[in-house]
Amino acid sequence: MKKVVYDYSKKYNKYTEEFKKDKAYVDANYVSSGSMWADGFKSIKENYNNLVEEARSVATEETKVIFKSITEKLNKKIAEGVAPGVVAELELLKTTKVTKDDIDAYLQKYYNNYLVCKVLKELAEKKEIQAEVLTLTDQMELLEDLKNQVIEFYRIYSGPSKSYKCELILNGNIIDNIDSQLKVFVVRYGIEV
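Now predict its structure.
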């Protein structure tokens, strides 16, 4: 993901520098109020806008493909079934008095089975026990938020150090934080991303 963001910003910066050089050439060689200057400026501005829009479109599509792939893999893993013996064990847990230690022990035992962890989390909530389980819904919300922030970055990026929000995406830890959470999630549940 970060590579797509960096590649877009590099292309944008390159196109901006080329535009500035071309504009300086037009400014130096034509009278600024003349029709030749206006035609030259219009031409380089259209070319610049087309290049930036193409780079933005490519980056946006690459971002969507990355997120779609991750989402599909997460959904596929989550849809895996649970062994019958595990189902019986979970049903027994629902009918007995469980403690936080019990829930934690079962979470540790079934740490790589998303569905079991989700059932254990729901059981813990019903019994008012604090259990820390990142659900697929939580992860999908984080991913959707990141995707939206990155696509917004492509829309508003206007060069280095122009926007605090863009700098956070480009040089901050927004992508790293969500990427770390995703890695923990996929490693925990054995998902190949």
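Residues 84-126 form one domain.
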